[in-house]
Amino acid sequence: MTKTSTLLAAVAGLTMAAVAPVSAETSDKRIALSNNYAGNSWRQAMLESWSKVGDAAVAEGAVAAADAFTTSENQATEQAAQIQNMILQGYDAIVINAASPTAINGAVREACDAGIVVVSFDGIVTEPCAWRIAIDFRQMGRDQITYLNERYPDGGNLLEIRGLAGVFVDDEISAGIHEAAADSKFEIVGSVHGDWAQDVAQRAVAGILPSLPEITAVVTQGGDGYGAAQAFAATDRSMPTIVMGNRQDELAWWAEQKAANGYQTTSLSIAPGVSTLAFWVAQQILDGQEVAKDLSVPMLRVQQDELDAALEATPEGSVANVEYSRDDAIAVIEASQ
Amino acid sequence: MNRELMRILLPVLSLAILLGAVFYLQPRAMSYFGLNLLFNLAIPVALATMAQMMILMVNDIDLSIGTFVSFCACVTATFVQETPLLGYAILLAAIAGYAAIGALIYVRGLPAIVVTLGMSFVWGGLAVMILPSPGGAPPPWLRTLMTLKPPLVPLAIIAPIVIALLAHLFVKRSSMGVLLQGVGGNERALERAGWSIVRLRATAYAVAGFFGVLSGMALVGLTTSADANIALRYTLLSIAGVILGGGEFTGGRISPIGAVIGALTLTLAASFLSFLRLSPDWQIGAQGAILILVLAARLLVSRREAAA
User: Fold this and answer.
1) How confident is the model at residue B308 (pLDDT cuts 50, 70, 90)?
2) Do A59 and A160 lie in a common domain?
3) Over 50: is that where the pLDDT of A17 sits?
4) Which of A73, A88, A168 sits opposite B34 (nearest CB)?
5) ipTM surpassing 0.85
6) Is residue A306 part of a domain?
């Protein structure tokens, strides 16, 4: 770096510091997103969030580039090749949503050896040189019971709607629910698989309902709350408290019920904007910050009083989303230390 | 000889043109390090292509190569690494299994496309049983071999050349290779001459199984761990590689050197498209377009040949 450019950078740093805490350290750094799949609304929202926050960061000079790449076939070997191409393209950091936790480790290792910062999120990689932003699905299960405990201190009967059988995420959320329920006055009287789809959930709940006692609340995994509500509405039972999963149709139904009879519940899920958290974490690492290798993502929660705002911001057929800022990333990094 | 030359010229030209384009787009690729990154994942693809070529040579087609390579990768990342003796025994048994499938297809007169499609589920199921969740590790010597940094020329260039030459020697220069081509060309004639077709076909399948095993091992050496779905793409990539390299579906007309070049071309085409920053929605289509372009060029060449 020449003297003038050092001076310029210092001046830039000073002026920036006065306006916003933008660091000049990473203004020449380039970050790439390696994504393995784009075929559902969650992933689409994730990519949108990335480009929104990435473009803004480039415009304000926080980084030089924030390019997103998606493999066409959701295959690990293809993603490994994609990551190797990124190394050649000279990116300083690669943010990965991986097709396999292990099968791209070789390529990740190559990237680390080339001095590139690798941050994985959602679909994380096990290679020790990479950072991991993992989702604590167990906590998502426990949080539901915590909320219900506050609503119904005397406990009651719960119906559990699970996800797709045999998938790790389903096991984790369910384990969290059962763990917390064991310590509460609630009893899980029925459990069905809704496959994270409203129509499947509706059929499954309708099938089990005749055999169940009075249900106080329904614990869910997201993408199944609206279906459960439809199944209950078709009977003469009173509507239980159904925990929602941030899907637009679920929020819309909740808002409708809230207007009609003051229905109360809560809604929680992982925001697709977690890609932007990974982006800022990568930026912080490039900036020279000490960051623990394992971070966890905060859950996106929609409460009763935030419902209208959340519903308004969520496009039809999509998921409630939030884009993380650099300050959010710093908070997550500090929380892990 | 002239025909052979023409056959090999087209794949060489397509590879050269693509390579030129990649170097133009990304000058950084024009280095030892760059070439290694561009081509190292082509090594297992090239080996899988060799396996497919053996099957195509005897007029069959193998739809189970991808899952077979995945299975071998899973065995390598688990048994071969933990209990080498058992691991290699399983891999040998897998090769024997391939030979048995080849014999079965001929003896019962079954369509290979159906049998291998069925086998793809068997291999896939076995892979999931061995490695229910992604993981495992390569045996240390394999990792060392695949990350070898020989002086001057990167491993990613040396390995395909060695593979191509060995396969060429076997198919074009050994008597067994000539016989196997004969099975594809005129099975009846060979049978009348007193050769056992069952044995020849079983041999072709066994050699294919051997290359499949090598492909799985090379893949684990590169990725450092396996996944039951790791190589599913290889089935179609390997067929495309053989055809791109001047091979044909019938008549035992194949070219090992061309097929390896075809595999490299396919790998490079994907990198080229990603350097172009083409949207992923268009990438599969564009990859297909490159394939059609090369095949169309080949058709033109062979038409002219026929006319001459």
Assistant:
1) low
2) no
3) no
4) A88
5) no
6) no
